[in-house]
Design goal:
Layout lengths: L8 E5 L4 H12 L3 E6 L2 H11 L4 E4 L7 H13 L4 E4 L13 H29 L2 E6 L10 H20 L4 E6 L7 H6 L2 H10 L9 H11 L24
Parallel strand pairs: 1-2, 1-4, 2-3, 4-5, 5-6
Helix pairs in contact: 1-8, 3-4, 4-5
Length: 246
């Protein structure tokens, strides 16, 4: 299927490794011109070499107060326009009942506030063209306990649904993809090979952890003109791991 993406422009955050890197590679393969964002510039430069095309490289820490403005300005300066925004950056760490305000603020900033700010920085130019795609990589809706990232991702789902209703008339779609167990630096760091094997056999219907490319394929489709009638959706890519019905 021709996704009709050739010549479009995209901004991908958290593009240095794992899911974000796979998304950048997949979009580039479809002929999309890219701006990529991460804290580790060397990895973004190696991505440029891997793709074999010039990228707009933006080295930025999401915790900077001016991060959204800095990223949007750099992407627009380098690309001229941003047709597709992929909000992939984020992070999670353990919380407890006594977790302090600083850690809560960090979790909300990294997983909701900066994504919201960056999106709103780019909305006007999308609306001016009557075309845009916003794809948010989020998270599961089944928290095992208190976790700031889970709360932030729930906010992302709610905000995305509301935003989709505001901008649909401008040809802009807004969708969320909560990943399941996808092989990444974080997964390899946090889960032993033995646990990954047990979970694959007992909890994931397709029988294995996913690959970053499994998400990248859906991102490319949702970012394309072919997906014009899909908006306000939350579409898990998890091999059937989650048990909720919708």
């Amino acid at each position: 299927m021709d996704l009709q993406l050739s010549g479009k422009t995209a901004l991908v955050t958290g593009a240095s490794a794992g899911i974000g890197r796979a998304i950048a590679r997949a979009l580039a393969a479809e002929g999309v011109r890219l701006a990529v964002v991460a804290r580790r510039r060397a990895l973004l430069e190696s991505l440029q070499t891997e793709i074999g095309a010039k990228l707009v490289i933006v080295e930025c820490d999401f915790m900077r107060e001016d991060a959204a403005a800095a990223i949007a300005d750099a992407a627009l300066a380098g690309l001229g326009t941003v047709d597709i925004l992929v909000n992939n950056a984020g992070g999670s760490r353990k919380f407890g009942i006594d977790t302090g305000e600083a850690q809560w603020n960090e979790a909300m900033t990294l997983n909701f506030t900066r994504q919201r700010q960056l999106t709103h920085k780019l909305l006007d130019q999308m609306m001016a063209k009557n075309w845009g795609r916003i794809v948010n990589l989020t998270g599961k809706s089944e928290p095992e306990g208190i976790n700031g990232a889970f709360c932030a991702k729930a906010a992302m789902h709610s905000w995305s649904k509301g935003l989709s209703r505001e901008v649909g008339k401008h040809g802009i779609t807004v969708n969320c993809i909560p990943p399941g167990r996808i092989i990444s630096e974080q997964i390899l760091r946090n889960y032993t090979p033995e646990y990954r094997q047990w979970q694959s056999e007992h909890e994931i219907p397709v029988g294995e952890y996913g690959q970053p490319e499994d998400l990248a394929n859906l991102v490319c489709f949702l970012a394309s003109p072919r997906a014009r009638y899909i908006t306000g959706a939350v579409i898990p890519v998890d091999g059937g791991l989650r048990r909720y019905q919708f």
